[in-house]
Every structure is written in C-alpha cells, then in structure tokens.
C-alpha cells in the first residue's frame, strides 16, 4: 500500500505523548473553535474564562499564547 507523502497523521509525527497540560489546552482550544472563536483575542478571552491558565499561572495574552503555541510546536 502506498501512502501519499503529503499526508501525515499527527500521532505519527509526535515525538512523545502529550502532557496533561497540553491535552487540557488542546481541548479548550477545540471548544473555542467549535463556538466560532477564531480570532486570537477571542481565543485568549475564552482560555482566560475556561482555563487552563498560561504556563506562568497568569491570564493569557495574545503574545503569551503565540509564544506558547510556538514552543509547543517544536517541543
């Protein structure tokens, strides 16, 4: 069976199991997207209401969210 090289299953690409924090953050982001909250300010507002908090224990900002997503992308 030949698999299209442009197709990557996210579970095949990851290097480790996600942490509990990453699972909580991903689930919260999926709920926000499901409500149509696509803009970063809307997403950050949703995360600040629903959690989880930013890694520093504070509320999210657009810049802290962008930095965290970038960090997680290369982790």
**Gap between N and C termini:** 31 Å
Instruction: Provide the number of structural domains.
Output: 1
Binned strand content:
under 5%
Helix content: 55-70%
**What's the order of the H and E elements?**
HHHH
The main β sheet shows up as:
none
- Low-pLDDT sequence parts: none
Computed structural class: mainly alpha
Number of strands: 0
The backbone outline, from C-alpha atoms, is globular
Q: Mind telling me the C-alpha Rg?
A: 14 Å
Individual helix count = 4
**Would you tell me the overall average pLDDT?**
89
Please, could you describe this protein's structure?
- With 75 residues, this protein is mainly alpha-helical.
- Helices cover 57% and strands 0% of the residues.
- The protein has four helices and no strands.
- The protein has helices spanning 10-13, 20-34, 40-50, 62-74.
- Helix 2 packs across helix 3.
- The longest helix has 15 residues, at 20-34.
Search tags:
single chain, 75 residues, globular, mainly alpha
Describe the secondary-structure layout.
Layout: H1 10-13, H2 20-34, H3 40-50, H4 62-74
Helix pairs in contact: 2-3
Compact summary:
The protein has 75 residues and is mostly helical.
């Amino acid at each position: 069976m030949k698999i299209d090289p442009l197709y990557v299953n996210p579970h095949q690409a990851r290097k480790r199991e996600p942490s509990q924090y990453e699972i909580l953050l991903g689930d919260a982001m999926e709920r926000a997207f499901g409500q149509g909250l696509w803009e970063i300010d809307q997403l950050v507002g949703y995360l600040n209401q629903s959690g989880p908090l930013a890694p520093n224990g504070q509320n999210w900002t657009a810049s802290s969210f962008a930095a965290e997503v970038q960090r997680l992308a290369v982790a």
